[in-house]
Design brief:
about 5% helix, L,D-transpeptidase catalytic domain-like, mainly beta, ten-stranded mixed β-sheet, 1 helix, disordered C terminus, about 180 residues
Amino acid sequence: MSEPAILEVSPSGWLDFSGRRFRCALGKGGVKTHKREGDGATPVGRFALRRLFYRPDRIARPFCALKTAPLPPDAGWCDDPAHPDYNRLVTLPHPASCETMWRRDAVYDLVIPLGYNDEPPVAGLGSAIFLHLARPDYTPTEGCVALARADFLALLPLLSAASEIAIGDPNSGSGS
């Protein structure tokens, strides 16, 4: 059985994959081994790419070997460490604190949740860590990895269901 293809992300803001290099935005809190909820840091580690969500009102279903689903208008992501839905996709309105996934800006027009702190989620270790679209000026994220739309679309056909992302040190383990 072959090793999964690894997207390698350097703390300096570059993603290398399949002989290609893409500029990326990372968390405003830097890249950290010990991520905590709200620190704005991108976690160090090696994580699965869970599935691809896309905004069906803004983009046609892209080709990708990952499980792919349209993002519903009432989608949210729970970021309340005290709630049982912590670090999970939820339906809005929701009784706990949640990030709105159907945004006015384009950053979640394409979004892949990373397998960070999700099997099972541990309260306070961070939530809503995604691979998503970057703002035009590559403004730092709240802890995610963000690519330009053209780069994200170029990357999608190269991914497989076994692809993973390694942030920081590619040999750092699961980080979960």
